[in-house]
Amino acid sequence: MLVASHDAAILRTVGVDLVRQIWDCDISAELAKDSRSPEDLLSKYRDETHTWILILKQDSIVKGKTMGRKESSDVDLTVNQVLGWLRTEIRERDQREGTYQRHKLQRHTSANDTNHNTQSEQKEQDVHVLVAGIKSKKSNRRNIVEQAQSRAAALVQSFLDGPIAAIETTDHVLDLIRDTRLSDPETWRKVMHAVPTTERRYIGEIHELMEDLALKNKGVTRNAFVYNFRTGTCVYYDMGA
Length: 241
Prior knowledge:
alpha/beta, 3-stranded mixed sheet, 241 residues, 5-stranded mixed sheet, single chain, Rossmann fold
């Protein structure tokens, strides 16, 4: 990953911070040299093998370029969308190349969480193969199992791209929030009427937070999580529903 900008001030502020965020995800990245234009930038790095280039522009806009793939178009992102876009790009690349899993993209975890994840990774997911017709070759069964496990792991990994809303409430209210849909305001009004009057303003703030997260992650991911830090319960939330 090469992080660049044709504005030296942006490169040394936003660019440095973005490189740090990418490093925090255990993804290799470097800050580019000063450049005056895309052509100037590419000429300075023509002999390098960067997979992606991020060009920072004014107003927190970032142009993402995938190198080496003619079918890939440049995309315009906000700074907040970069990591989600990058995770998606890496996941799709791994699927093309047949990589089984990429666990390094997971956010920082405690030592206990890491040990738990390691134990989970060692256990292979059970795959039940149902073939159609008599022409299927039994010799391909292992490939089918491995591909199924790989795709399932990539799908689960994609869920981790989603933001987390940390709130303080009861698990009963958390269950009500999980059943809401951002596309249907009536579902949120039902939650409002189900809580005491003193809590309704807070529910409204949660609703606004989820709408804001959905807007910021539009085109990146619809997956999100709501964490109740009062009880420690966490639920999945579909921002696209």
